[in-house]
Amino acid sequence: MLSVDEAITSRRSVRAFKTDPVPRDTVSHILDVASRAPSGTNTQPWHVHVLTGDSLKSLCDAVLDAFWNEPEKHQNDRLHYMDEWRDPYLARRRKVGWDLYGLAGIGKGEREKTREFHSRNFKFFNAPVGMIFTIDRDMGWMSWLDYGMFLQNICVAARGQDLHTCPQAAWGGFHDVVEKHLGLPKAQLVHCGMSLGYEDTTAEVNKLETDREPLEAFVTFHGNS
Question: N or C: which end of the chain has fewer CB within 10 A?
């Protein structure tokens, strides 16, 4: 087991996994621990669909078919980040994007390579466990914040089991395919996906190291103590 600090600081978005299976008991343990995340008035707004084996492959095949053959028909059904990117967020986004593409051997303007790389999202980066997270459509923004803490708990709890994760907003772009494939009720929408498994330490793409702003850039202390 890692210390709490080690689990948090060693968490990375891994984009290449070994195919070694993860025991269901381990996945259940991670989700059980993660469910201790705080939520307003204990609403616990999360719903989790865990996919392995044939179920995972079937969903991936369905979304990949849409990704390659009719991408223009599929859109997010809500604002993911911003209508128009601006600094400092745009600069941070561009940097991590080019750092990642550099490790993947993708140069500027290589659209087909970029698209192929993006398609790996919909294979859960070959992880043996894929998760789709849904939330009731009528939940407000506080519930979305609660959900974020739940997702972070999963990422940290996974590190305690020597596993890695990759949260994936990309699945939201094909929410209609996912909704149909999983038989989701209309009251629920697709929040995001997440890959879970053992890191492929030989993959260049997993060497990505993201920058973090220094404390003084985002913290204001009030008081003398």
Answer: C
